[in-house]
Design a protein that fits this description.
The chain is an alpha+beta fold. The chain has helices at 2-11, 26-39, 53-63, 97-113, 210-222, 232-251, and strands at 16-19, 43-46, 70-80, 119-126, 133-141, 147-153, 155-166, 170-173, 185-190, 200-205, 255-256. It contains 6 helices and 11 strands. The strands form 2 sheets. Strands 10-9-8-7-3-6-5-4-11 form a 9-stranded mixed sheet. The protein has a two-stranded parallel sheet with strand order 1-2.
Length: 259
Amino acid sequence: MHIPVSVQAADAGKHVLCEKPIGLSADEIRPLIEARDRNQVHVWEAFMVRHHPQWERVRKLVRAGEIGELRAIQGFFSYYNDDPDNIRNMADIGGGGIYDIGCYPTVTSRFVLGHEPTRVIALVDRDPSFGTDRLASAILDFGNGIQSSFVCSTQLVLYQRMQFFGTKGRIAVEIPFNAPHWGETNIIIDDGAELGDKSQRIEVIPATNQYANQGDRLSEAIRGGTPPAFELEDSVKQAAVLDALFRSEETGSWEQVLA
């Protein structure tokens, strides 16, 4: 329902902040771009993580060469939910792990790197009753020897972590996606001098509400104070990666990302 309701809102002259994933395919998003343009409104996909200072800091550190040349990204995101009445377990309306949580290691990898993967491959296990993807492993090839891989699951222990590996160090984001608004978050930086995490240091990021930050930035854009942070064109690129992952599930092969 995200796309048709957002189009209706845009046609009514309303600015829109729509929950992720904003659409179930890249092509599905294009009519919303047309509605945005003809009504001259802002329409954003709600990826709150891009508005948390911990992710802005990770991007800055990686691009400044803190860990040397970035070569590998590794993510894990899981929770356990086998409730048949939960929307996350309803395949016909976009339930499943990749849409719900696999999108996060995807969007944060793209956020840090600042460019798109060229091809992807996925291995998916589906719940026999729900038909949803309950466990998925994926590799995203960003070219130039850079790979991002992740595992996501709707039926595993509650856990999340993102790590960035370079030629001279490693960065780990302790609570990458559900950062608590009431408490500090940690970024772990390790130069690899010793095993067992003995050479790591921790940067503490003050408590902040990433949802409020997102809303504030949209409000600023609406008032004309700042340019839009992330346009729907970026949402098309994000959706194209997920499209390719599902094609790879069917073919068992590498699939090109077609934004």
